[in-house]
């Protein structure tokens, strides 16, 4: 099996952190969702060779190529374990966080949260937008963002818990 090791030395310490993914690993890719690495290849870009993860996303037929050298920077990580699904559901059931009243600020804040790649943060965004939509209909932009957030959250639940997308959606909705 092909495996790639990516290491980064922290700027102010001797400590280094290494991320190693191989074919078959289930990963979360911020703003795209969760998927499985189906291949690792070297592609030529100009004069240089670059390694890429080929990721098959769990929520669509889409395959994305993630540059190995940038994967840590963009927040690619292993998906949660099935035992951690309960913690995600607790976030969905928790009280909503205060959001800016201005939709532009709210939209920007929610996008920044989703870009962190943290499933618990994504669950909070889904929870807050769903509850807001139940009270006052979301704008078109926020409705689209809610769809992206749910896709990110539910795609990881599919891989972590063995659900279908429909079952993951029902699970999310029933805990908000």
State the gist of this model.
The protein has about 180 residues and is α+β, with helices and mostly antiparallel strands. About 45% of the residues lie in helices and about 25% in strands.
Q: What does this molecule look like?
A:
With 176 residues, this protein is α+β, with helices and mostly antiparallel strands. Helices cover 45% and strands 27% of the residues. It is built from 6 helices and 7 strands, in the order ββββββαβααααα. It has helices at residues 68-74, 85-93, 103-115, 119-135, 140-161, 165-175; strands spanning 3-9, 16-22, 26-29, 33-45, 48-57, 63-67, 77-78. The strands form 2 sheets. Strands 6-5-4-3-7 form a 5-stranded antiparallel β-sheet. Strands 1-2 form a two-stranded antiparallel sheet. β5 (48-57) and β6 (63-67) form a beta hairpin. The model is unreliable at 8-17 (pLDDT under 50).
Main sheet specs? 5 strands, antiparallel
The total of helices stands at: 6
Helix share bin = 40-55%
Encode the helix/strand succession as letters.
EEEEEEHEHHHHH
Side-by-side strand order of the widest sheet: 6-5-4-3-7
Class by helix and strand content?
A: alpha+beta
Per DSSP E runs of 2 or more residues, the count of β-strands stands at 7
Which stretches of 5+ consecutive residues score pLDDT under 50?
Answer: 8-17
End-to-end separation in angstroms reads 41 Å
Q: Give the integer mean of the pLDDT values.
A: 88
What Rg is obtained from the alpha carbons, in whole angstroms? 18 Å
Can you tell me the overall shape? globular
Content of β-strand: 25-35%
């Amino acid at each position: 099996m092909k495996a790639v090791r990516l290491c980064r030395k922290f700027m102010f310490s001797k400590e280094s952190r290494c991320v190693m993914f191989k074919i078959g690993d289930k990963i979360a890719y911020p703003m795209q969702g969760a998927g499985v690495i189906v291949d690792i290849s070297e592609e030529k870009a100009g004069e240089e060779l670059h390694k890429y993860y080929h990721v098959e996303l769990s929520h669509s037929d889409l395959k994305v190529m993630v540059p190995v050298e940038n994967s840590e920077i963009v927040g690619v990580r292993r998906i949660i374990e099935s035992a951690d699904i309960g913690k995600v559901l607790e976030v969905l059931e928790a009280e909503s966080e205060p959001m800016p009243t201005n939709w532009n600020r709210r939209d920007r804040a929610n996008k920044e949260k989703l870009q962190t790649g943290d499933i618990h943060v994504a669950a909070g965004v889904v929870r807050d937008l769903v509850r807001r939509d139940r009270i006052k209909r979301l704008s078109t932009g926020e409705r689209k963002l809610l769809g992206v957030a749910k896709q990110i959250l539910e795609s990881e639940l599919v891989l972590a818990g063995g659900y279908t997308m429909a079952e993951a959606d029902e699970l999310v909705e029933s805990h908000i």
